[in-house]
Write a structure and sequence with these properties.
The complex is a heterodimer of chains A (359) and B (322). Chain A has 359 residues and is an alpha+beta fold. In chain A, the strands form 4 sheets. In chain A, strands 11-17-16-15-14-13-12 form a 7-stranded antiparallel sheet. In chain A, a hairpin with a 2-residue loop joins strand 2 and strand 3. In chain A, 42% of the residues are buried. Chain B is of the alpha/beta class. Chain B folds into 3 domains: 93 residues, Beta Barrel (Elongation Factor Tu (Ef-tu), domain 3), CATH 2.40.30; 108 residues, Nucleotide-binding domain of ferredoxin-NADP reductase (FNR) module (Rossmann fold); 86 residues, Beta-grasp domain (Ubiquitin-like (UB roll)). In chain B, strands 10-9-8-11-12 form a 5-stranded parallel sheet, with helices on both faces. In chain B, helix 4 packs across helix 5. The two termini of chain B are 35 Å apart. The chains are: A alpha+beta (359), B alpha/beta (322).
């Protein structure tokens, strides 16, 4: 993989859960940019460059005074637009004194940041993440902050659920996944992997939740929005009730949600949730599902983290070795092509370096 | 904002005169093209009497066509930068930086007032086009001496029509800054680039209007004063020196040339590091910086040596040498 920047900057990325950002300073690194986040009195979230204009001390080590940040070193004050409003020991303010203020949108229970050119920060480019709103779909997720891998490895992971059979043995993994072909489709910025496993014995989690004996049809429809949003529409319905034809009324439906935010070239923040439209009032089920994903190293996502971080270490130790691709990687490869196209349009160069073998 | 710039080799592709003394330069940089943002500038390596020096020029346009554009005004009392630029013909090799920005345009404000004086139109022109493209509310007031000095005015008029208002001093028209500020919506922002007198008027009127100080944005080019430049003499009793500051040098440059150990950073009248205490003045100190307040300038106890000058005489200053 090339050492050039692997992530587009002109995109909305999740930076925090809404509930995490209060009237206090919170530091994050997003796409190798250090930012300090806080919530103003009027509720608006602010993201400033986390380095004082003067001597670069992180502003997150300072304090809030009203809606302004006071640097913890020499007391320069910056307002929520990033402009200096006070300089010590002089009567004027240097006209160029400012820190960058990143565009922010708070939506779908998350705070989204635009690390690139603010002039291009179009709210219409926000990814569709409505499944996370907590209305039609319910669930409580979390974040793996500073997950030790290139964000694209998480994309690869979620765009190919074949891995469930091997990484998540005994929970959601099932031989039916590897035995069933899938279809891949794409637009110019999305990719979709569709897999229908019909007339199978549902795996334990789904069998219990469905609560109906007999064969079932199981679906996994994974929807990628460039550069790094993934929504996996998953569920089961009793075989013969018409789910593959579009009638899911006899089945149950969930969705795994991922907003994967590059932190550095080799680390990312993985905002995840698993939401559902069944048993929406069952708070105990919500807790159980949360624990099934992340539970002190025992959850299914904990298992993914182990794999992803080991994979990144191996990549770092074998920097010249290419990836080999299989048929199962089609979804991931389409996702990566969308990312490469964003990168190419951002850097004004051809989408793929020619002549890299192994494909 | 702190920012990293990179030096690039570049080739001058074309020049075109926008007015009798303002010339447009189209420059093709090598390497990956970093598009300029409104308000940004380039550092360009110039050669003055065979010695390299650096000058800043505002980017014109935010084109992504791989070409950087600047406009350079030929100054009668040039310190050498503009004279050097005017010697260049297409094909000339240059060393220049990727764009930096000390004068960033904020997006999404309800209203904007833009004010340009003379060659100060260069960053304001780019901001104007950017605002017009996003259909923002704005007005542009453009002041110049006379009709033929109005570089870029035709293009502006084509793009923004009567949102451009022109003020020519030879027709006796002056910008009424207070009235313009009064028309600006309460949360609007005011961007100014022009000679120091215009900046000071703008700062004073903005302060008088009671609007938040951070919504007045300005950039100075650090070489304009209330008075025409003159040569003058600097005396430093502590060092036993008498130094002549010629018309085409700054006081800071002359002091450095005479071996005075000077501290400095921005060299454009913003940071205040090169300021020295004034012991005695014969003549008028033309304060051309934006570091000192009006009151401090009136008290006349220190001056920024990088931009300020003395008119009609000499000045005696002290240095921190002990």
């Amino acid at each position: 993989m090339s050492e050039s920047s692997p992530f587009p900057l002109n995109a909305w990325y999740a930076a925090a859960w809404s509930h995490e950002i209060k009237h206090e300073l919170a530091a994050r690194t997003i796409c190798e940019k250090d930012v300090v986040l806080y919530r103003r009195d009027d509720g608006a979230v602010v993201a400033l460059e986390d380095a004082c204009w003067h001597r670069l001390l992180p502003l997150s080590l300072g304090r809030l005074r009203g809606n302004e940040v006071v640097c913890g070193y020499h007391g320069l004050v910056f307002n929520s637009a990033g402009r200096c409003t006070y300089m010590p020991a002089q009567k004027t303010i240097n006209p160029s004194a400012a820190v960058h203020a990143h565009p922010i949108i708070e939506r779908h229970r998350l705070v989204w940041i635009w690390p690139g050119d603010p002039a291009l920060a179009d709210p219409a480019k926000m990814p569709d993440f409505h499944w996370n709103d907590g209305t039609d779909w319910v669930g409580e997720g979390g974040t793996f902050y500073k997950l030790g891998c290139d964000y694209r490895l998480v994309v690869d992971n979620l765009m190919d659920l074949t891995h469930e059979t091997y990484v998540h043995v005994g929970t959601i993994g099932d031989e039916a996944i590897t035995g069933t072909p899938f279809e891949v489709s794409h637009t110019d910025h999305t990719a979709t992997v569709t897999r229908w496993m019909t007339n199978i014995d549902p795996p334990p989690f789904w069998a219990t939740q469905l609560g109906k004996a007999g064969k079932a049809d199981r679906w996994q429809i994974i929807y990628f929005q460039a550069p790094s949003i993934i929504v996996g529409d998953v569920g089961v319905a009793p075989t013969g009730t018409g789910a593959p034809q579009g009638d899911r009324s006899q089945g149950i439906n969930g969705a795994f949600l991922a907003a994967v935010t590059p932190e550095t070239k080799r680390t990312c923040h993985y905002f995840w949730n698993f939401v559902r439209t069944f048993k929406k009032d069952d708070a105990e089920l919500t807790r159980q599902i949360n624990r099934a994903h992340v539970n002190d190293g025992q959850g299914v996502y904990d298992q993914d983290v182990t794999v992803l971080e080991a994979q990144q270490r191996a990549i770092d130790r074998n920097p010249r070795l290419p990836f080999y691709n299989l048929n199962i990687d089609a979804g991931a490869l389409w996702a990566r092509r969308m990312i490469d196209r964003l990168l190419a349009s951002e850097h004004g160069q051809s989408a793929r370096p020619p002549g890299v073998a192994a494909e | 904002m702190p920012e990293a710039i990179e030096w690039r080799s570049a080739e001058l592709r074309a020049v075109r005169d926008l007015s009798p003394d303002i010339r447009l330069f189209e420059i093709k940089p090598a390497g990956e093209f970093v598009p300029p943002t409104p308000g940004s500038h380039f550092n360009i390596m110039v050669h003055i009497n065979g010695r390299p020096d650096v000058r800043n020029y505002s980017a014109i346009g935010i084109g992504t066509d791989g070409i950087y554009r600047i406009a350079v005004k030929r100054l009668p009392n040039s310190r050498g930068g503009s004279a050097y630029m005017w010697t260049l013909a297409p094909g000339a090799r240059l060393t220049m930086s990727t764009p930096g920005n000390h004068f960033e345009l904020s997006r999404g404000r309800p209203d904007y007032l833009l004010l340009a004086g003379g060659i100060g139109i260069t960053p304001i022109f780019t901001m104007t086009l950017a605002l017009a493209e996003t259909r923002a509310n704005f007005r542009l007031l453009y002041a110049a001496r006379c009709q033929q000095d109005l570089a870029l005015a035709d293009e502006l008029r084509n793009r923004i029509g009567d949102r451009l208002q022109v003020f020519l001093s030879d027709e006796g028209r002056r910008v009424d800054i207070a009235a313009a500020i009064a028309r600006l919506q309460p949360d609007g922002e005011f961007y100014v680039c022009g000679p120091i007198g215009m900046l000071e008027d703008a700062k004073r009127e903005w302060q008088r209007s009671g609007r938040p100080v951070d919504r007045l944005r300005f950039e100075t080019f650090g070489n304009s004063g209330r008075f025409a430049s003159e040569a003058f003499k600097v005396k430093i009793p502590r060092l036993g020196l008498e130094i002549d500051v010629p018309l085409n040098q700054t006081m800071l440059e002359s002091l450095e040339g005479a071996g005075v150990d000077m501290m400095f950073d921005c060299r454009r009248g913003e940071c205040g590091l090169c300021a020295l205490p004034i012991l005695e003045t014969h003549g008028i100190v033309d304060h051309r910086d934006v570091f000192f307040s009006d009151e401090e300038k009136a008290a006349n106890t220190r001056l920024c040596t990088c931009v300020s000058r003395v008119i009609g005489g000499s000045i005696t200053v002290d240095t921190p040498d002990r």
